[in-house]
Amino acid sequence: MQFSLGPVLYFWPKAQMLQFYREVADSDFDIVYLGETVCSKRRELKYEDYLALALMLREAGKQVVLSSMTLYEAPGELRELRKYVDNGEFLVEANDVGAISMLQEQSLPFVAGAAINCYNQHTLRRLVSMGLSRWVMPVELSGQWLSDVLNQSIISDIRDCFSTEVFALGHLPLAWSGRCFTARSENRSKDQCELCCIKYPAGREVSSQDGTQVFVLNGIQTQSGYRYNLVNQLSTMHNTVDIVRLSPQQTGTFDWLAKFKANLDGTAPQPLSASDSNGYWLQLAGMATG
Amino acid sequence: MELLCPAGSMPALKAAIEHGADAVYIGLKDDTNARHFAGLNFDEARLKEAARFVHQHGKKLHVAINTFAHPDNYQRWQQAVDMAAHAGADVLILADIAVLAYAAERYPKLERHLSVQASATNVAAINFYRQFGISRVVLPRVLSMQQVRAIAKSSDIDLEVFAFGSLCIMAEGRCYLSSYMTGQSPNTAGACSPAAFVNWQDNDGTLESRLNGILIDRFAPNETAGYPTLCKGRFSVGDDTYHALEEPTSLNTLDLLPQIYAEGIKSLKIEGRQRSPAYVAQITKVWRAAIDAVQSAPDHFKVQPQWQQVLAGLSEGSQTTLGAYHRKWK
């Protein structure tokens, strides 16, 4: 089982990003996803900066994947996507089928990210024939659903053609909108957002009126209120999951990697905090804990 | 420009046709469609009856099979396609790649439209789905009018937009908020914020709505209480308690009709298969009149006050919005 570091989902200042990735270079992550996946207005790091980071991380022995955005609405955003597709060196994670279309045109392999709607073996098989080399299943699916897909006979003969990856730590990306909710929370319109999300390096918490954390606002993205945490489920993943993804945390990312690695066989379970959940994996509501 | 109206039952379907719909869209009685609600939708016999009725009136029947197929009973989605094809549907509205491919291979002559649940918000995504022979794309409600225009200009595929009804503010088909709270999402169960998880409690005149135990909103005695759709609740962010994502409001694009018409949009979709026949009748009548007016004199189109009056009365919280079509909404 390998461990990957997902793309930074929040808007961090450039200096913080560079410092973070220097630490990533020295870490035990096998695979690193790089790129802005949420909002095209976030430009602390430009394409060239990500490429420089990618080269540095590859030098450090990491497999690097360039992650693309989830919600493409404007022609300018597609031109930016084209650059990622044409990078010439690194694998690309598609989070919109528009990216798959561009990658497919050039017969390039791709990672299908969690926002690609692949829910069953027939869709998975089609995507493999288009070049899918890694499948990150939608976050709302369970361990049982994953094994139901992989155990189908039409998958068994292509199971060597792709790896599987599961989002296992972090606030879950749950929705994307035309509207920016962080700007709205500051009474700004999206056009006048002044990139205010940079003030919230872990997003803005949304609570119900009686105090339950329900969501986290991250620009146009809505995340789970609780942090998803599958640290205690790793021992059930050995037959179905090849790569376990941790999403960058404001603090503690590398400590969590150590905890995950220590508990691969379930011998070093970790207590979950009251704001952790693991419901989706266990076929429960996502915010539940089993 | 086609007027495409919703129907969750035979009476609603008849109301739509009798009040001027050019086409009606319906779903089957299971979780293969995104309005999988108790007491709603069509079994095989009703489906055939619907096709007969619609065709007798020279109109078209669209069948939505737009959830994502499950691994252990994939056949149900195939059977839904087979059933719709054999019953005489004119169009299938599809979202799952595998189901699109199945329909394209098995029934190549049956028209396929890309459901809004497939979440195609840009030309590259539309190009992706073209490999399944789709002839029309239903655009998600996250796009601004300017973005709709850009797609219309750079793609020759037919476009359908939502004109009126409940407003999804998230990119459809990629929203997991409902399963996060309840375990059931539009993608997997064909329902958002399902009624089975809703609970109402009256605390000395303050009405609380909950979804699977989570407090969605509190209503003072003088406030109108709305259904607890989870993205339309009042929550706290920092020191403020407000509709953090969206207010209870309906999409209404009457004001944009001349622009939509000018862009050559092929179809206007009215949301609301879960609504009553009376609702469908009233909505259809207004939009029929509006479309006729814009088609006969596009430069002189004026929204009639009585149309707005009817639509406001049929709207969530009696409020309407242009939604993402209008940039300021974002």
UniProtKB/TrEMBL annotation, chain A:
It holds the Pfam family Peptidase_U32. Keywords: 4Fe-4S, Iron, Iron-sulfur, Metal-binding, Ubiquinone biosynthesis. [4Fe-4S] cluster binds at residues 39, 180, 193, 197. Pathway: Cofactor biosynthesis; ubiquinone biosynthesis. InterPro entries: Peptidase_U32, RNA/ubiquinone_mod_enzymes, UbiV. It comes from the Bacteria. Its cofactor is [4Fe-4S] cluster. The keyword Cell cycle does not apply. Forms a heterodimer with UbiU. Required for O(2)-independent ubiquinone (coenzyme Q) biosynthesis. Together with UbiU, is essential for the C6-hydroxylation reaction in the oxygen-independent ubiquinone biosynthesis pathway. Belongs to the peptidase U32 family. UbiV subfamily. This is Ubiquinone biosynthesis protein UbiV. The lineage of its organism: Bacteria, Pseudomonadati, Pseudomonadota, Gammaproteobacteria, Chromatiales.
TrEMBL record, chain B:
Forms a heterodimer with UbiV. Coiled coil: none annotated. It comes from Arsukibacterium indicum. PROSITE patterns: PEPTIDASE_U32. Signal peptide: none annotated. The keyword Manganese does not apply. InterPro entries: Peptidase_U32 (IPR001539), RNA/ubiquinone_mod_enzymes (IPR051454), UbiU (IPR043692). Required for O(2)-independent ubiquinone (coenzyme Q) biosynthesis. Together with UbiV, is essential for the C6-hydroxylation reaction in the oxygen-independent ubiquinone biosynthesis pathway. The keyword Iron applies. Transmembrane segments: none annotated. [4Fe-4S] cluster binds at residues 168, 175, 192, 231. Its cofactor is [4Fe-4S] cluster. Keywords: 4Fe-4S, Iron, Iron-sulfur, Metal-binding, Ubiquinone biosynthesis. This is Ubiquinone biosynthesis protein UbiU. Belongs to the peptidase U32 family. UbiU subfamily. Pathway: Cofactor biosynthesis; ubiquinone biosynthesis.
